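To: structure subgroup
Subject: Chain for Friday's discussion

All,

I'm putting the inputs and outputs inline so they're searchable in the archive.
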Amino acid sequence: MTSQQPVISCRNVWKIFGANPERYLAGMAKGRTFDEMRSDGYIAGVRDVTLDIHRGEMLVIMGLSGSGKSTLVRCFSRLHEITAGKIDVDGQDIVTMKDKDLIELRRNKMGMVFQSFGLLPHRTVLDNVAFPLEMRGQDRHDRRERALEVIKLVGLEGREEYFPRELSGGQQQRVGIARSLAIEPDIWFLDEPFSALDPLIRREMQDEFLRLQELLGKTIVFITHDFDEALRLADRIAIMKDGAIEQCDTPDQIVLHPATPYVKKFTEDIEKSRVVHARVLATPINGHVPEGEPIRAGATILQLARQLVNETRDELPVANKNGELIGIMNRQEALDVLLGDS
C-alpha cells in the first residue's frame, strides 16, 4: 500500500559525462538532443528527470542498455554526483549533504542488490548476511540474530553454514537479498538482480520478491530491461530512453495508452488482457447500477474472459475486495481488450 508522501523526489536532474559538464549544461541550447550532445563530446546519462517515488511503492525503471536506468538510480543514492537539479530523500537534500551524513543515510536507510551477487567466497551464508551489520559495528550476538531472521525470511533456513560455492544461482541471489535486508532499509535499490538467472529460477525469485514486498512494504526501485518482469512486479513503470523518462505510469495505463512511439514499441507484443484490470476500465457510478453479481476490480480481463464471453449484460458492476462497488465496466470495451481490438 503506497502513500502520497514521496520518499524520493527529484527535480530537473541532469547527469552529464564529459570534460566540464556544468559549464556545458549552463551554455547548452534548450532542447539539444542526446545525439547532438554526444557530437559535442558529452554523454547525457540522465536528462532533465523529474520524478517522485512514494512510500511503499515499487517503481520499476526499464529501458534498453545505455538508456540511463542504472545512472539514475545511482543518482538517487548519490553514488553519482549530479550535474544539475535537486534530489530529496525523506525530505533531506542529498546533493548538499555532507559525506558523513550521506554515509549514515546509505547505511541506515538504503539497501542495494545488484546483478552480480558479490558474495564473499570464504564466508558462510550467515557471515555474508551479517557482514553489513559487522561493518556498522553491531554487537556479534545481535547481528547473528538479525542475520538468522532474514535468512529464514528468504527461505534459506538450514543453509546458514553453507559457503556460496555450495549454493545454486537462485540461492546465492537470495543471500544477496537477505544481506541487503539485514540493515532493515527503508529504501531498496535493485539493479537487474535476476537477469543472470535461468528463466525458471528467475520466475521463482520474482514470486519470492513479491512475497517479501507484501510482507515488508518497502519503498523499492527495481531496474530491469525485461518488460514482462516490469509488468509483473511494478506499481508504476518508468520507461527510459537516452537518459530521459519517456513515460511513467501504471502497467495498465502504459499498455492501454503508450505516450510515445518508443513506449508503444515495448507494448505492441504484450497481450493487454493479462495486464489490464477491471478497475481500470470501470467508470464512476452515475445513478443506475446494473443488477447481478459484480466482477472483481483486481481481476485481469484475461481472468474474466469466460465470464465476459458468456455475459448478457452490456454493463457490469465492479467491486473491490471488500465487496464495495467502485464503478461500472462496459462489456464491449472489455471484450475489445480481450480480443485485441483496442
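Points worth raising on Friday:
The first strand starts at residue 6 and ends at 17.
The chain is about 35% helix and 25% strand.

D.
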